[in-house]
Amino acid sequence: MTVTLTRSTPAVTSPPPARVRRRGERSRLASIAYHATMITVSAVAVFPVLWVVYMSFGDADAWANPAEILRSPVTSNYGAVLRQHDGFLTWLGNSLVVAICTTLLGVLIAATAGYALSRMRFPGHRPLMWTFLVTQMFPVAILIVPLYNILSTLHLLNTYAGLVLTYCTISVPFCAWMLKGYFDTIPVEIDEAGRIDGCSPFGTFWKLVVPLARPGLAVTAFYTFLTAWGEVAYATQFMTTPDRYTLAVGLQTYVGQFKAEWGAMTAASVMISAFAAAVFFGVQRHLVSGLTAGAAK
Amino acid sequence: MTLLRRVLDRHWYAWAMVAPVVLVLALLVLYPLARGLWFSLTDANESNIGRTIGPNHIPSTYQFVGLDNYWHVLSGAEGHFYPVLAWTVVWTLICVALHYGIGLALALLLNQRARFRTGYRIMLILPWAVPPFVSVFAWRLLLNGQAGIVNKALGGLGLPAVAWLSDPTWQKVSVIGVNTWIGVPFMMVALLGGLQSIPAELYEAAEMDGASAWHRFRFVTVPSLRPISNTVILLGCIWTFNQFAIIFLLVGQAAGASSQILVTYAYQLAFSGVRDYSGSATYGALILSLLLVFAVVYRRRLGSPARENPT
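^ Those are the sequences you sent over. The predicted structure of the assembly is below.
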């Protein structure tokens, strides 16, 4: 906790006891300490990002000599990255296709299950919840080899379908778990009203609960999207040619053992981050409450 | 028979609604899992596994070897398991402690009434908003041995340059640092949500009773945050234990076994050099059993984590 120095408040009837102060008021010294801390920490948080933005305006050799950039900033990195054949734009497209398909599949498949788990008690309820919890903990190490072999047998390596199916191993249990948490927050009375009006359980779910759970569905979808969009391990092995790379794989190609195209790397990073951060800040308020609501119960 | 019918009558609706998920889990998780466990009982590697090259199909020739792989790994003959496990545990503990400690401190600071609070909040969340794979490359640029800004800054202070990404010990420091940088905002936001949901009356009552700032923190804030703390610490442990992208991308393929954690090491076994599928599967099975034990113990000790909705 911050140092909260006492400060007598004149409004209080005399004599003011030493402990009385209005909540949130601080002495000048404490204020300075507070802002100094916050500014330092914020600088640590922001600096790497700003540095990448700065470096993206340097030419090929600028990364070794950052001061040069101020004298002669260039935008050629952006052009080069965007023009590259089977490059940034292709990877962006691939990432979007894979992430969107994964999200849609995950939410669609998981929604009814989340509802059933939230509202009904049936044999298999507990094991299923346990399975969801356990699959959250699945290390990539145990599934990647068998999935690689299965996909290879089915000729699905290096295809969107293969990667989407792989991501479903993560997204489906995750969505079901999260959505159950959301459905739990919707009053059961709504279902009962629906049932009295003659809806089937599925009708109640579809016509009454889904519209109410729309924010929860959106947050779950967004989380799934983020996970698929940023996944590295599977994509690195399963997507083998540059025309199928996702961004997370493609970005690795700029900086390898024998080359360091930091200009291209930083320019691509800036474009990815700008896009991601814009979306992120739009929805971040809901993200944590969503995740912890899903974690409850 | 009638019993079966009654059960079916009562529950068919629920079962129908969970059926798609069960089907997907069975096909995409359980089946590969079973296959993975099977691999761990064989000597499968790149050269003896069935594969198709062009029109030719080469059948599998790997053999069942029983528990040999597990024995090989667990007896220490393989030589990497225990050091890597030890480092994984240390890495998880340090990272989660740093995430939680710094996250809580920042959440408490952000919960104070102060000017520019929103501005600070937005800046502090930024590391979470940038996709991790991008952040890692940003840090590789910053920590670069010769030209990285961090080493230049050290040089400016008259300190020697540090081999952040190539020396095994410094690799460990770097991955922890970067993981902390990436992971703190989540904890911070989660705990801030928890802090804001604590009723102000509790603090006022404590103050009336003459509780000092420390006592208010100790006896009001900490217990009120317990449900959300349990949840985020459990999640944090699992995520950190399984953290792949940061280590793989930061020190990656070049790193020796000493700075890998179990997950990245198993990945390395499976996909570099002669692909050792059975060894990797063995590691996978061991990692999963460790996590299961951890989760069961954790739930036992704390009851169901985060029973109430904390935000």
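Chain A has a mean pLDDT of 83. Chain A has one domain: 81-295.

Shout if you want it in another format.
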